[in-house]
Amino acid sequence: DTVLTQSPDSLTVSLGERATINCKSSQTIFYSSNSKNFLAWYQQKPGQPPKLLIYWASTRESGVPDRFSGSGSGTDFTLTISSLQAEDVAVYYCQQYFTTPWTFGQGTKVEIK
Amino acid sequence: QVQLQESGPGLVKPSQTLSLTCTVSGDSSTSDDYYWSWIRQSAGKGLEWIGRIHTRGSTNYNPSLKSRITMSVEMSNGHISLKLSSVTATDTAVYYCAREPRDTGGWYRGFDLWGQGALVTVSS
Predict the structure, then answer these.
(1) Cα separation, A4 vs A14, whole angstroms
(2) What is the average pLDDT score of chain B?
(3) Which residues 48-107 of A are in CB contact (within 8 Å) with B?
(4) Confidence of residue B42 (pLDDT cuts 50, 70, 90)
(5) Are A56 and B47 a contacting pair at CB < 8 A?
(6) Which residues contact A3 (CB under 8 A, 6 or more apart)?
């Protein structure tokens, strides 16, 4: 299975500051035939299902604020929240859909300082 | 607006079969080109993908669970079902169904729609 390792496990950031979450894959999830990285990012708030934020590593899902951005390629990826808002307190997960079984990172909890 | 809703018994005895149904509602589109996945979340193992079934019936299962899983789809009534046999306490989790859409390039691209989840506890 493709193992996704997120860092850090938790993050405390002041309102308006930048939050950065990393996701490292145990194998490449870049497909040269379509030049895409098969990686998604999700946000999960307590008592709710995960919500898709980013797919293809850097494409924002419709309706997602532009303070959320994704970057990276191959095995190393980053989710950035450019200016943290109170409503961004959540757990964030990366997920690969390159090779079954699809797998998720262990999650990063983001809190307000 | 399309919605997914999981339903089924909240308590299952060890060694029995867990059965859940995901109901798709509000879908007025004619597209049938989706995969429907089951994903579970437990405190001990985080998010775990169980498997998926295409609207037209093809499946992919997680090898770690494959021998115990059966998925089926009946889109005429908007139902996707999961059966997990021989359950143990480690199968206790919140079970989600989720949709994988196909993008304009022809590739499936992550889970864009999730149900609220169904808590299933395995206990005697």
Answers:
(1) 27
(2) 93
(3) 48-52, 55-56, 61, 93, 95, 97, 100-104, 106-107
(4) very high
(5) no
(6) A25, A26, A103
Token couple for A52? 């898709």
Half-sphere exposure of A29 (CA within 13 A, CB side): 32
The predicted structure's pLDDT at residue B28: 60
Q: Is A110 exposed, middle or buried (0-12, 13-18, 19+ CB in 10 A)?
A: buried
Give CA separation, A15 vs A70, A81, A82, A85, B14, in Å.
Answer: 20, 11, 10, 6, 47
Is there a contact between A40 and B109 if contact means CB atoms under 8 Å apart? yes
Q: Using a pLDDT cut of 90, give the percent of chain B over it.
A: 81
Nearest of B86, B95, B83 to residue B121 by alpha carbon: B95
Of the pLDDT bands very low, low, confident and very high (cuts 50, 70, 90), residue A25 is: very high
